[in-house]
Each structure stands twice: as structure tokens, then as C-alpha cells.
UniProtKB/TrEMBL annotation:
GO CC annotations on file: cytoplasm
Molecular function in Gene Ontology: rRNA (cytosine-N4-)-methyltransferase activity
Catalysed reactions, semicolon-separated: cytidine(1402) in 16S rRNA + S-adenosyl-L-methionine = N(4)-methylcytidine(1402) in 16S rRNA + S-adenosyl-L-homocysteine + H(+)
Subcellular location(s) per record: Cytoplasm
SUPFAM superfamilies, sorted: Putative methyltransferase TM0872, insert domain, S-adenosyl-L-methionine-dependent methyltransferases
A Pfam family of this chain: Methyltransf_5
Residues binding S-adenosyl-L-methionine: 33-35, 52, 78, 99, 106
InterPro entries given in the database record: RsmH (IPR002903), SAM-dep_MeTrfase_MraW_recog (IPR023397), SAM-dependent_MTases_sf (IPR029063)
Native organism: Candidatus Gallacutalibacter pullicola
Protein name: Ribosomal RNA small subunit methyltransferase H
Residue stretches spanning the membrane: none
Biological processes, Gene Ontology terms: rRNA base methylation
Length: 315
């Protein structure tokens, strides 16, 4: 299957990066190369480094960027962005893009095991290496599974689902996506089964996050990206669920925070200055027109900040 990824908030993201023809840019989550190609098309003497951990994405992005001498594609995780960039001789960047989460290709390729819409081996590994979702559901205790489903899926039925999984695997291992989806469906109350959307959605999200350590990777990746930015550089991050968006919002807010002295102090003694400023005070959501074209974009948010640390003060 051809690697298909529908870039969400595409125009808004490219505009927010404020791309200079001679600038250096990093796409930390290249996917199919849609955002990367748009960046490359705007460069003349600049450079683009596109990174992804998925071998399928690396092949697709490489093909899409083959005609651009300014572009380079490397396999790696964006949480190690500074190391990957340094290996390519890049120490600073004018812009970094992170498009977080699972791609359309990963969801729509049954054998990758991300979706409850297809019957496939229960996998969910973005890098195609390491511990799979199948190993988690067949080895963890119900307490551990419930903690994952509650924390990362924010599902109030986490205990019932976890106990249902453990009970089912006593008869036979849980091996496929549809087996797991059916176990979840049977484990939740009838009222939940009648609600819109599949009752296994949150469980699949939670397992995917755990398998890929997504929140830990995001936390480290945000710091890596910000440290790579030169003064004036921009970081644009697209998220797809509240846990990711909350982390990005809070991290950018911390970079933008200045003096933390108590309000009754007559002068600042902490010496803390803002390291960044927000391009948009609130995250951008997809337009109704985009949602009509791509319903999967409904939960997407774009947040962008500009590094100001070290910029000369204006008179």
C-alpha cells in the first residue's frame, strides 16, 4: 500500500513556520512527506532535514523528496532530534515541525495493527520494533492494563475492560485487533455500546500510546526541538488528542513565562525572562471545510511559538 498521509492544518502550518528560502528546517515527523515537500518547495539555498521512525514513511518521504537537493531524509525518533541533526551537520534551525500521532497510512494498513476496523495482528508499533500491543494485553496484570487505559485512554470503564481482557486471555491469547475490540465491547456497559463511536477507541489509543511511549517521546522531543531553534526560529506542533495538546500548551507556556517573583515584590529579583512568544494565543483548529474533507482532523490542534531568547532588544 502506498504511504498515504493527509496533512492536517496544512496551509496554516506552513504559513506559521514563516519559511525563509535560505533557512534550515526540520520536519521531525515526516510521514509521507507532505509537509516536508511543501517546505522544500519554498527553499533555495536552505536545507531541510526530514526525520521519521517508520521505515514505510522513510521510503515514501524519500521518494516524494527525491527531486529536491535541499532535502535529506533520515530514520530516527524526533525525541533524539539534536543527535540526528548533528550527524547531518545541523546545529541550529529556523523552524521545526512536529505532526504528532498515528498517520492515515498506519491506520489504513491492516497489518500494522493500529485499527479496530480491520482484522489484523495486534501490533501498533510505529517503528516496527520493540514490544507490541499483543505482548502487553497478554502479559500485563489487569491492574497494569487498567492504569494504562485510564491514564492514556481516559476511559472510566478501564477496570472493567482490563478485567475483561485478562478473563478472555485465560481461554486463549488475544492476538488480533478485532478480538480485542470485541472483548472491550463485551466488557463495557450496554449504555456505552449504544453511544456514538466504537467503545474500543479509547483502549486502542491507550495501548498505542503505551507501546510507542508517545508522551515521553513528545516531552523529550519538545525540548529537543526548542533547543535546536536559533533566536527567531519557530516551533509548530500538531496534536490529535487532549493529552498531547495539554503537554504542548503547558510546555510552550513555560517557555513564554517571564518573572515569577511574588506580585508584591517592588522589583524583579528572579531574573527570569521569557524564552519564547506564542504566535497564536490559542491553538488553531481545522476549518469546517477541512473537517468535511478529512473527518479524522476533528481533534487536531496546531500550536506555534517563536524563540526570542538571545534576540537583541528593540529600542
Amino acid at each position: 500500500m502506498e504511504f498515504e498521509h493527509k496533512p492536517v492544518l496544512f496551509e496554516e502550518t506552513i504559513e506559521a513556520l514563516n519559511i525563509r528560502p535560505d533557512g534550515i528546517y526540520i520536519d521531525g515527523t515526516a510521514g509521507g512527506g507532505g509537509h516536508s515537500r511543501a517546505i522544500a518547495e519554498r527553499l533555495t539555498t536552505g536545507r531541510l532535514l526530514s526525520i521519521d521512525q517508520d521505515p514505510d514513511a522513510i521510503r515514501a518521504a524519500g521518494e516524494r523528496l527525491a527531486g529536491f537537493s535541499c532535502a535529506q531524509v533520515c530514520r530516527g525518533n524526533f525525541s533524539q532530534m539534536r543527535t540526528v541533526a548533528a550527524e547531518q551537520g545541523i546545529r541550529e534551525a529556523d523552524g521545526v515541525l512536529l505532526d504528532i500521532g498515528v498517520s492515515s497510512h498506519q491506520l489504513d494498513t491492516p497489518e500494522r495493527g493500529f485499527s479496530y476496523h480491520y482484522d489484523a495482528p495486534l501490533d501498533m508499533r510505529m517503528s516496527q520494533t520493540g514490544t507490541s500491543a499483543k505482548e502487553l494485553v497478554n502479559t500485563l496484570s489487569w491492574q497494569e492494563l487498567a492504569a494504562i487505559i485510564s491514564k492514556y485512554g481516559e476511559d472510566k470503564n478501564a477496570v472493567r475492560i482490563a478485567k475483561g481482557i485478562v478473563q478472555a486471555r485465560q481461554e486463549k491469547p488475544v492476538e488480533t485487533t478485532l478480538e480485542l475490540a470485541e472483548i472491550v465491547k463485551k466488557s463495557v456497559p450496554a449504555a456505552v455500546r449504544r453511544e456514538q463511536g466504537h467503545p474500543a477507541r479509547r483502549t486502542f489509543q491507550a495501548l498505542r500510546i503505551e507501546v510507542n511511549h508517545e508522551l515521553d517521546v513528545l516531552s523529550q522531543g519538545l525540548d529537543e526541538a526548542f533547543e535546536l531553534l536559533r533566536p527567531g526560529g519557530r516551533l509548530a506542533v500538531i496534536t490529535f488528542h487532549s493529552l498531547e495538546d495539554r503537554m504542548v500548551k503547558q510546555r510552550m507556556a513555560s517557555w513564554c513565562q517571564g518573572c515569577i517573583c511574588p506580585p508584591d515584590f517592588p522589583v524583579c529579583v528572579c531574573g527570569r525572562k521569557p524564552r519564547a512568544e506564542l504566535i497564536y494565543k490559542k491553538g488553531l483548529a481545522p476549518s469546517p471545510q477541512e473537517l468535511e474533507r478529512n473527518p479524522r482532523a476533528r481533534s487536531a490542534r496546531l500550536r506555534v511559538c517563536r524563540k526570542i531568547e538571545g534576540l537583541p532588544e528593540q529600542e
